Amino acid sequence: MIAIAVFGSSVALGLPMAVVFASHAQSRAAVAACEAVARQPEAAGHVWRFLMLTLVLIESLVIYALVAFFVLQGLLARMIVR
User: Fold this and answer.
1) Would 22 disulfide with which of 41, 48, 53, 62, CB 3.0-4.6 Å?
2) How many CB atoms are closer than 10 A to CB 80?
3) Domain boundaries, the chain
């Protein structure tokens, strides 16, 4: 029973932690992009492309964490029913 409680708490904390770390990473990427454009305004187009690529990759990791959260939540529900 303790294993189910530990597994349940790790499932419940996993997604919020992923969201917090991803939002922090996205804000740091945006700050770095703004600083880069401020230093070299002529490179704004290249910085914008790399910023979008970075944000898409970070967001895809959050989506994978969300999918894993739902899968693990389903496994937890099966463990409790037994």
Assistant:
1) 62
2) 11
3) 2-81
DSSP alpha helix (H) spans, 1-82: 2-39, 44-81
The span from the CA of 60 to the CA of 82, in Å, is: 34
Look up residue 82 and give its two tokens: 């037994």
Token digits for 5?
A: 């409680």
Which among 40, 63, 21 has a CA at the least distance from the CA of 48?
40
2-81 in CATH: which number? 1.20.20.10
Residues 6-59: pLDDT tens digits?
888 887 888 889 899 999 999 999 999 999 999 999 999 999 999 999 999 999
